[in-house]
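#struct-help
A.M.: can someone run this one for me? Single chain, 163 residues.
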Amino acid sequence: MEKEFTEVYCGGGKGKTTLAIGQCLRASAQGKSVIIIQFLKGRERRELDFLEELDNLDIKIFRFAKHDEGYEELNEQEKAEEKTNILNALNFARKVIATQECDFLLLDEILALPDYGITTAEAIGDILKMKDESMHILLTGRTLPDSLRKYADSITTLTTEIV
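D.P.: on it. Structure tokens below:
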């Protein structure tokens, strides 16, 4: 069996999620099962709804955040509620990896969680430690904490230049 990668798409540029979705489509077209867990997407979370409508593709999308607003726009009570929802998403990601529930797992915007104090990079690392060589995992977010670099087989940093 071919060893699967853990990939990271990070950086301040546009297109990390779009690039990751392309990888999900490719994996699904190759007959692999795909799970997408979105974190902190706010209003943007509905941009992937079309994927669930595509026939013959095994792609499942999970969103635990309930608010359309971005996390930074929420009041303190809403942030506390959303933090609980996002921690539930992390627990779900842990379960998916532990049970090898899919072949390809996208953890969209997971790298932003430490920036907002929702969880630590170490807690994300503990989840990634559970991965075996048969699952491909892709993480996205602006910043890759140094402590998570050791889990990545490939790091792609996107930048956007406005001209």
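A.M.: thanks! Residues 65 and 85 are 6 Å apart (CA to CA).
D.P.: also worth noting: The chain has a mean pLDDT of 89.
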